[in-house]
Every structure is written in C-alpha cells, then in structure tokens.
Structure of Transcriptional regulator, GntR family:
Amino acid sequence: MSNAWHEEMQAVAKSGGRVSDRDIADKVRHAVLMQRLPPGTKLPEITLGEVFGVSRSVVRKSLTRLASEHVIDQRPNQVARVRAPSVEETRETFDARRLVEGEIAAQLAGRLSPEALEALERQADLETEAFRGGDEPARIEHSLTLHHLLAEHSPNRVLGGMLTDLVLRTSIVVALYKRSGLASCYQEGQHGRLLRHLASGDAEAARGAIHDHLNGLEALLDLSPREARIDLMSILGHTPEQA
Amino acid sequence: MSNAWHEEMQAVAKSGGRVSDRDIADKVRHAVLMQRLPPGTKLPEITLGEVFGVSRSVVRKSLTRLASEHVIDQRPNQVARVRAPSVEETRETFDARRLVEGEIAAQLAGRLSPEALEALERQADLETEAFRGGDEPARIEHSLTLHHLLAEHSPNRVLGGMLTDLVLRTSIVVALYKRSGLASCYQEGQHGRLLRHLASGDAEAARGAIHDHLNGLEALLDLSPREARIDLMSILGHTPEQA
DNA sequence: TCTTCTTTTTTTGTATACAAAAAAAGGCCC
DNA sequence: GGGCCTTTTTTTGTATACAAAAAAAGAAGA
C-alpha cells in the first residue's frame, strides 16, 4: 500500500469508538466523492480492516453495501476497486436522473410545507455562501444535501430512494469528468429558480428547472475521447495511486 | 422451524454441487415470488445454511443481496424476514415503474433489432400458451422474462437496471395483493399491443401501452383496507407460517 | 387467568483459521 | 532487454468459535 493511500485512510478512519459497516461505507463513499480515492484504487479487505480497527467480516459487509450503490466494483476472487464509470454510463446516469428528479420536482410543486421549503432555501443559501467564500468542498456538500432533501420529501418513497442513488452516482461522475480548468460547478441562481417554481406550484416549470440544471451540469463535463483511456486503464489494471 | 417451511426450503435447495450466495438468493427470491414464503416469514442464517449445506458466511452474503433488492427486511440483531410492502408502497412502486418502463418503451420504439423483437414476441406467445393451458406459474415466469428482456434491451443501462429492480418489486406486491378470487393476472392482447407499437416505432403509443398495461394490473389488486392488518402483523411480529 | 419478572434458548455480530484462487516476484532462456 | 515459466506472496472464499443481543419459555404473584 502506498503511503498516500494509507495516510488518506488513516485520516478517514473514525477517531475513537467502535465502527460499524455503515461507518466504513460512509467514509469510503465520501472519500470517493471528494476524489481522494481515484477510480481503480484497490480496497483490500485486510488493509481496510487494519485501518479502521475491525476484522474482515465488518469490512466485507461495507464493501457489499458500496458495491450495491455502484461505488465500487466487486468481482469474485478479486480485490474491490473504486469504480470508473464510462462516459456512456455518465450520459445514461444524467438521463435517468433527469427523468426521476424531474418527476419528483413536478410532484412536489406546490405540496411542500413551509418548513420544508425553508430548509431547502437554507441549503441553497449555504451553497451560495460557500461558493462566494471559495470553499468548493463545502459547496458540494451543501448542494448534495439540497438534492437529498428533495429525495426525502418526495411523496413517492420508491422514487425518492431511486433519486438518492442517482444523486450519488452523478456526483461521482461529475468529480471524475469535470473539465480540468474548472474551479467549481456552481450554477448561479439555478437552485433558486427551482425553489421558486416549487413554491409557486408550477409543476412543469419545476421539471424544466431540474432539466436545465442537470443539462447545465452535464455541459460542464469533458465527455470527449477519454473513453478509450479509462477503459484501457481498468482493463490493463493500471492503477494510478498504488502498485 | 415448521415442517412446511423446512420442506419448502428442502425442495428449493439445489440438488447437488456447491451453492453460491447468488444461488441461494435466486432460490429464496423465486420462492417469495411464488408466494411459497409469505411476508413475515423468518429466515434465520443457521437454518438457511443447513438447508443449503453451507455456512452462515455464504448465507449472510445472500441475505444482504436480497435486502438490497428489497425482498427481505434486515434489521440489526434481528432475524431477516420476508418483506411485506404496504399498500402505499405498492402504489408508489407502480407509479415509479410506469415512469421508468414507459420511458424505456418510448426510447426503444423503432430501435429494436428484428431478432430482439422476435425474442419478445416468442415470450408473449409462451405467456399466452401457458395461460390457455392454465399453468399460471409458467405464465408469470414468461411475463417476467418479457419485461426483463425489455430492461436488458434498454439503450440506457442505468434505467434498465432500475427497471429490473422495479419489475421484481411489482411482482412481489402483485403476488401479495392479488384479489383472492382471481385465477390469473393475464391481460388479453396487452403485450401484443405493446410489441406492435415498439415495432412500428410510435414512441408515445408504446409509452401509453405500458401505462395501460400497468394500470390494468394495478386494478386487479385489492388495495383497500388491509393496510392496518399488514402493519399490525409486522409490528406485533405475528408470523403466519411458523412459531 | 393474566401479568410480570427471571432464566434459558436461540440468533446475530465479530474475530479468526485454513483452503483456494489470483497477483506478484523471481529466474530462465532467447 | 524482453518474453515465458515457476515459485512465492497476497487476497479472497468459507467454515467455525465465542460474545452480545434478542426472543422464548418458565415461574411467581396478584
């Protein structure tokens, strides 16, 4: 294991107390989201267990969980690796999320309690603040929370669960394919516009706001010729961060 | 463990050779789908292991898998049980499936290869045959296969995966809430109509066919006052098939 | 007879040991 | 130097043992 990886994992491990499989999954997921564990990174059970101070049994459960969330790849008799979604899958993920989140926004329009709306607005404000302050990790967190709130408030819990999954998967591919020069994916006023339509109760306008928001986000990605590079990377087993 | 349950599981166990976690999950899922393991049924790890001839390690993995598919409920320190989706969740599942499968059908219209179309038609014919022959389990299998084929052929693999999940969940609630007098949920000519629109390339007609098909199916269910009964059952831990 | 508390049994959570498979390293020949 | 085979090491798959929690059974009292 390389030093960088090990140190990252040490930092990621819970300071004290017992850790559950959920804790480990949370930490690893977050590290992937924050691009501290790049695609292809190996996640051996023993190492993970040592870092978090638990045995393989617990680690195994968390890995299974992460695999079902499409965060890692888990093939029989092989070490789990951080997944590298292709550009094709990226487009498909956005497509699916437009459909699902658009529908949820439409269903939610005009049916949100004042408290829920206020909570959403608070998140939007926090995101803007973090952007103005140049704290991109915080901005991402706040943006994610906003969309997760949307999923939670969905009257249809099944659709809501699907959105939670899609928000995670989109975040991963955004982190992966963001144009290199780009400092932030913040889109001025977009969340505000969505919230206005949700409050006023215009379902189709809310759906449209979601579509525009996601189209804008997808447009900030570099989805051109990397395809081949990524595929070769995973096929040849070339891992960037460790031997 | 009651005799009925144990015998059912014996029957369900693979005849010979080693069994993987996937095998066990497949068998249990199928038994749930065929209503041979009613909601609330306990699935203790040791018993399952004994029946399939493997240790708890393997069983645990299969249970985790089934939980992520929403087939069973798995709470900390409690035995896994076959899930009993509420009527509310049933409606939400249908709603979600209408959205996703409708979109897939629309995207697929006019884009299916002749071979794919032929395979779909073969499944529809097999279903009709099984219905005419009065073999309901076989009819269900063929109907399921048809929708799974649709999911597989989806150009959007992410949406396809979501549909696979939703088809399973719908089947479970159909088995659970089917009106008691009803012999079959077969809907004359519906699959044929869908396939015609898929072949002719009329996207909105294909979407409409899916909507009608699912609405018709939902209408065959008894979604009235049981809500309370089911909830009490799971809350009070009253299990029908075993002590 | 019903309730409540205690004791026993069952069942899951976690760690660990050993076998099998895959990956890596080393040595060999060209 | 580069490719190929053998050996070693690493890593996962599975079974099992023991502790902790939950469920069930039993006993005592009203």
